Amino acid sequence: MMDYTPEIVQVVPHDDYTVTVFFCDGKIVQYDAAPKLEKGIFKCLKDKELFINNCKIMNDTLAWDLTGKNDPTDCIDIDPDFLYSLECVEDPIAI
Question: What CATH number does the domain located at 8-85 have?
Answer without folding.
Answer: 3.30.2020
